[in-house]
């Protein structure tokens, strides 16, 4: 089977501490037909130099630099603009993938003709592995609206089924906005219940819970444009489910 091209979208901002580990986890993939598109969001540290060293060694890795700092959503969208792959995958510059992640997930999508998939993932800090997040086997638009069960570092969508889709330009919760857009096109997203990604919780990209809730409320009102009653309803469910998930 000819491997379809997978475009891996990685935003970066002051990521010099961890980005090498993230890039290496892509290089170690058993699935080899990928391009890694890194957009730097005007870092003030050595991030660009670190990435340029990888670009010089592997032509599949490409670096772009935003003209101004626009947030992770803008950085991801810039990389999506340049993406040439049938499949669009996401990995942040402080997270990691299991070596078989792409191979297993692309095979799963091809076998079932799924437009959007995701996987289980494990939280970690330093050298300590914490709880595994095990999402439901599937989700749809209405369910996802109350609970974002799709970890961004695990998601892949198929442009042949849903087209090339971009994230809303809000500073937080852009990924949830993208999944909802995709789920207006394809009825369900499906999960591989294997731990194929690792989510770092000790970096600057991890937000405190109050900040997350603030942005979630703005997301419902400004991006999804729910009325006050519906926003309150989904926000309440989201808060309860989020508390349960992060307590595990």
Automatic annotation (TrEMBL):
Domain of life: Bacteria
InterPro entries (UniProt xref): Glyco_trans_2-like, Nucleotide-diphossugar_trans
Residue ranges of domain Glycosyltransferase 2-like in the record: 7-129
Protein name, as recorded: Glycosyltransferase
Originating organism: Pseudoalteromonas shioyasakiensis
């Amino acid at each position: 089977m000819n491997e379809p091209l997978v475009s891996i979208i990685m935003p970066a901002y002051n990521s010099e501490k961890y980005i090498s580990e993230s890039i290496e986890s892509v290089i170690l993939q058993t699935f080899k037909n990928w391009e890694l598109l890194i957009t730097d969001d005007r870092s003030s540290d050595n991030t660009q130099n670190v990435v340029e060293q990888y670009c010089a060694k592997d032509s599949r890795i490409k670096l772009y630099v935003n003209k101004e700092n626009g947030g992770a959503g803008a950085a991801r969208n810039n990389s999506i603009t340049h993406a040439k792959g049938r499949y669009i995958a996401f990995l942040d510059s402080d997270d990691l993938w299991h070596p078989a992640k792409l191979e297993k997930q692309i095979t799963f999508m091809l076998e079932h003709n799924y437009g959007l998939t995701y996987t289980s993932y494990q939280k970690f800090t330093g050298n300590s592995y914490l709880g595994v997040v095990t999402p439901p086997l599937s989700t749809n638009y209405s369910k996802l609206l109350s609970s974002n069960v799709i970890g961004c570092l695990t998601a892949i969508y198929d442009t042949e089924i849903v087209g090339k889709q971009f994230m809303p330009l809000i500073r937080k919760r852009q990924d949830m906005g993208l999944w909802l857009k995709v789920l207006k096109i394809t009825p369900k997203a499906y999960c591989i219940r294997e731990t194929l990604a690792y989510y770092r919780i000790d970096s600057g990209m991890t937000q405190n819970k109050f900040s997350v809730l603030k942005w979630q409320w703005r997301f419902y009102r400004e991006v999804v444009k729910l009325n006050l009653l519906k926003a309150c309803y989904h926000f309440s469910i989201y808060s309860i489910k989020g508390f349960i998930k992060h307590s595990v």
